[in-house]
Amino acid sequence: MREFWVDPKRSISNAYEKTDEAILSHESDLGRGGSTSVTAVLINGQRLWVANLGDSRAVLSKGGEAIQMSTDHEPSTERVSIEHKGGFVSNMPGDVPRVNGQLAVSRAFGDKSLKSHLRSDPAIHDTTVDNKTDLLVLASDGLWKVMDNQEVVDIARRIKDPQKAAKRLIAEALKRESKDDISCVVVRFR
């Protein structure tokens, strides 16, 4: 715990590493798949740390302006790393780039069969929360595939209750026929 206060970035990275190890060690119970992740930690109400793997995303609103706080880990952007590890990135017509023709993200928890080609270290970003900071949206790719960052912020800002805002965003993604998993959390700062 003390390490967290001294070096939050390292602590978050270590937590992700331990999570990946735990998932891989329980593969027989959990199955052979994997997961993406997005995490937010607010320290003293002032410093916001965001970490993610894969295509789960964090978007912050400052004065109504959407600011993406995470990095989408797509195979096409990390092709060199994947190929250096002996994998390949395929891009069939009408589809998205995939690691070894299977996985549409280049970083993930689990996915043991592809682990030698994937990374499980998170992208970590931090920022100061100030009086312009309205809210934070954490969501899986099912939301982001059918809505852009600013649109999500605009909808969430109109609804005072963060739980209702998250439900509204999910309903909108379903209305737009999102074909992927949809999970969403909205955090209000003021």
Outline of the structure:
It is an enzyme of class 3 (hydrolase). With 190 residues, this protein is of the alpha+beta class. It is built from seven helices and eleven strands.
- Proportion of helical residues: 25-40%
Q: What's the gyration radius in Å? A: 17 Å
CATH class descriptor name:
Alpha Beta
Shape: globular
Elements, N to C (H/E): HHHEEEEEHEEEEEHHHE
Calculate the terminal CA-CA distance, rounded to whole Å.
28 Å
Task: Explain what the structure shows.
- By secondary structure, this protein is of the alpha+beta class.
- It has one domain: Phosphatase 2c, domain 1 (4-Layer Sandwich).
- The protein has helices at residues 2-6, 8-25, 27-30, 79-84, 141-144, 149-157, 162-175, and strands spanning 34-35, 37-43, 47-53, 57-62, 65-68, 89-90, 98-99, 109-110, 123-128, 133-139, 184-188.
- The strands form 4 sheets. A 4-stranded antiparallel sheet has the order 5-4-10-11. A 3-stranded antiparallel sheet has the order 2-3-9, with helices on one face. It has a two-stranded antiparallel sheet with strand order 1-8.
- Strand 6 and strand 7 form a beta hairpin.
- The model has no long low-confidence stretch (mean pLDDT 93).
